[in-house]
Amino acid sequence: MDADVIIIGSGMGGATLAAALAPTGRRIMILERGEHLSASPVDRDAGAIFGKGVFRPEETWLDGQDRPFNPGNYYYVGGNSKFYGAALIRYRASDFETVSQTPGWPIRYADLERDYQAAEEMYQVRGRPLDDPTEPAHSGTYPHPPVPDEPDIADLRARLKQAGLHPSHIPLGVDLSAWLAAGQTTWDAYPNTCDGKMDAETCGLAAALSHQNVTLRTGARVDRLESDQGGRVTAAVLATGERLTASLFVVAAGAVQSAALLLRSANAHCPTGLANRSDHVGRNFMNHNCSAVLALHPMRKNQSVYQKTLMINDFYQGSDTRPPLGNVQMLGKITGPILEATTPLPRWIAHWIAARSFDFYAMSEDLPHPDSRVTLKNGRIRLDWQRSNLDAHVQLVKELKRVLRRIGFPIVLSQAFDRRTPSHQCGTARMGHDPALSVVNSHCRSHDHPNLFIVDASVLPTSAAVNPALTIAALALRAGRHITETECAA
Question: Domain Glucose-methanol-choline oxidoreductase C-terminal spans what residues (predicted)?
C-alpha cells in the first residue's frame, strides 16, 4: 500500500483531520490538487484580486439553466481558508436542532463542545465568549483575547449598545501584528502569504507535517475512487492515471468537489456513485443568503484599516413575532479600489463612499432541499442552487438598516451576493443516523463503505447562519478521535 490513510484535500477538514491522526504513527498521505500560495506583488492589490480575479481558477461550472459561470472557489494548499475572513464561530446550540421539516443533526451541541474547544486552541482563536447572549456554553476560554476594535469601530460598538443591541467580538484566527506588517489592509478575501491568518495550512497542516509519518503531495488531482464488490474503497486514481492505495480513504475536497468526485466514481458495484445508495450525494446543497450593507454619514469618515472585529446576533434566534433571521458581522474594510473593481461607480464616487462607509455582512441560513444539488453533465459540474429562506434574509437586511439609521447613519445601501460568490457551500453529503436519508454517520463515516470518511462542509445537515470553518474543524477532530479508537488501535 502507498499509505495507511489517504486524505483528499488540504482545506479545513482535511488538514485538521491529518493533525488529529498524525500522532497515531500511521502513514498519512494528503493529496492536494493545488500548489502552495507564494508571496507576490499583488497579494494586497485590490484591483488584481477583486477586479481581475488573479487568484481565481480558470474553471467554469454550469448553473441550473446550464449557463457557465466561474464559481470563485480556490485551489491551493489550505483550500478556501487561504482567503477566508478568519471568523471562527461556533454554531449556536439551537442550530443542531431540527430545522423546518428536515431531519436535522444526529448530534447535539454538547456532543461537539470538546472538539470546538480543541479546534479553537489549534487555530489560536482570539475572542471573548461572554459578550453574546446567544453564545453556547464553553468548557474553557479562548486561547487569546479578542482582536482589538479600531477607534471608529469602538465608537460603533458603543452606539449599538446604546440602541439596546448586544454587539460582540468576532472570534478570529488572526495574528494582527503579522498581518499588518505585510500590508495595511483587512484580511477578508485577501490571500494569506504572510502567516498572519490562522488557516488550514498555517495551523492544521503545519501540525500534521511536523510528524514524519505525514506527507503532502501537491498538484495531485484525484479523478475518481475505486471500490470492490465488498464495498471497500481500494484506490484513488489521479488525473494522470496513477493509482494510489491505502487502508482508509478520506474525502475532504469541499462540498461541491467532494460530491462531484463521489459521483464520478460510479462503477458496476455503485452505479450511481460511491457512498450514494441513498441517492443523497450532491443533494441538499446550501450556500448562505448574504448581503453587503454599507452605512455612511456624509460628514464623517471611517479611518479603520481592517474593521472586522464586531458581530451582532440579536436577530439570530426566533421569537413569537418573527422567525430566526441570522448573523450580522463586519466585512473587512471596503476601500475605494475594491468598489472600483466590483461596481460600475465612477472612481471619485467609489472613493468617497469607501472613505465614509461602515461595511456589514448580513448572513441568513439557507435551508436544505433535495433538489438543490450538484450533478455532472458530460463530465462538468452542474450546480442547481435552489435558494431558500429569502424572506428571512430580506427581513434581516431591513432590521439592520433600521438600526443603522437609528444610530446615526442617514445613508444605508445594500447589495445581495449573487450565485458567483461562494458563501460557505455545504450539505451535499449530509450526516445522519438513517442510511436512507444521509450519506455519512455521526462520525463522518460513509454508510456504504466502512473505510471511507467524508470530512468537510459537505456533511453539514444544516447551514446555520454563521461561518462554518470552526464547525468543520471540530467535526474533523471528532472524526479523528473515532478513527483513532476504531481503526488505529494498535
Answer: 372-476
Find the domain containing 481 and state its range.
Answer: 5-35+44-486
Grid coordinates given for 451? 473505510
Give me the count of residues in the chain. 490
pLDDT digits (tens, 9 = 90+) for 68-110: 998 888 999 999 999 999 999 999 999 998 766 667 899 999 9
- Dihedral in degrees, nearest 10, Cα atoms 338, 46, 74, 461: -30
CB burial string 411-435: b at 16+ within 10 A, e below: ebebeebebeebbbbbbbbbbbeee
Number of alpha carbons in the 13 Å side-chain half-sphere of residue 65: 3
User: What backbone torsions phi and psi does residue 363 show, to the nearest 5 degrees?
Assistant: -130, 125
Q: Enter the pTM of the model.
A: 0.97
DSSP string, 203-246: IIIHHHHTSTTEEEESS--EEEEEE-TTS-EEEEEETTS-EEE-
Q: Total structural domains in the chain? A: 1
pLDDT in tens, 270-324: 999 999 999 999 999 999 999 999 999 999 999 999 999 999 999 998 877 788 9
Low-confidence stretches of the chain (pLDDT beneath 70): 99-102, 419-422, 489-490
Contacts for 415 with CB less than 8 Å, ≥ 6 apart: 291, 292
Task: CATH number of the domain at 73, please.
Answer: 3.50.50.60
Q: What span, in angstroms and rounded, lies between the C-alpha atoms of 234 and 231?
A: 9
- DSSP annotation string for 33-101: SSB-----TTTT-HIIIIIS-TTS-S--EE-TTS-EE------BTTGGGGGS--B--PPPGGGGS--TT
Q: Under 8 Å CB-to-CB from 372, ≥6 apart: which residues?
A: 283, 284, 285, 286, 384, 385, 386, 387, 388
Rounded CA-CA distance 331/311 in Å is: 10
Dihedral angle sign, alpha carbons of residues 33, 39, 40, 42:
positive
The one-letter amino acid at 17: L
* Alpha-carbon span 203 to 196, nearest angstrom: 11
